Amino acid sequence: MRRFLDRLYLWSGYLGALFIVAICVAMIGQSILRELGVRTGAVNDVVSWFCAAAAFFTMAHAFKHGDFVRVTLMLESASPAGRRRLELTSLVIGSIATAYLAWSACLFTYESWEFQDMAQGLLALPLWIPQLSFAFGAVLLWVAVVDELLLVLRGATPTFVRAVEERHAKGDFSSDI
Length: 177
Prior knowledge:
It is a single chain. By secondary structure, the chain is mostly helical. Helix content is 76%, strand content 0%. It has six helices and no strands. Helix 1 runs antiparallel to helix 2 (42-64), helix 2 runs parallel beside helix 5 (128-153) and helix 4 (80-114) packs antiparallel against helix 5 (128-153). The longest helix is centred in the middle third of the chain and has 35 residues, at 80-114. It starts with a helix and ends in an 8-residue tail after the last helix.
């Protein structure tokens, strides 16, 4: 299961990166097509959906690799037992918050599908299609937070803490800036 989840987080990060490349290609293509006199109004809608997809598909990967913003001032000054309690408390709160986010995202996407909600821009597309990235990314983030909670409950160091410590051991403090 561990290998499956780690690969899922990794491939979700790759998918988010692919959407970033797609944003670049769409914007460059739009610039070229404009110069050729071709109308490209719907590209703006597509780029906005790609931005959302890139953000939501990469959340779980970023969380697991310690790339989320964390306020560690209290954690660094706490004793090991106090730090563990603070980590557990934050992961429980995070699990509840991301569960609500995932539930809301899935409900929102389902309702768009149920009511056959269509995009209002130049590209008439069922809204549930671009909203799937929101739902999938939110569910995957919830899975990642619960995964970390279970690891910490078993006594392990959180994956995101290990990732940051490994970067620091290599002399990479770029994430701290």
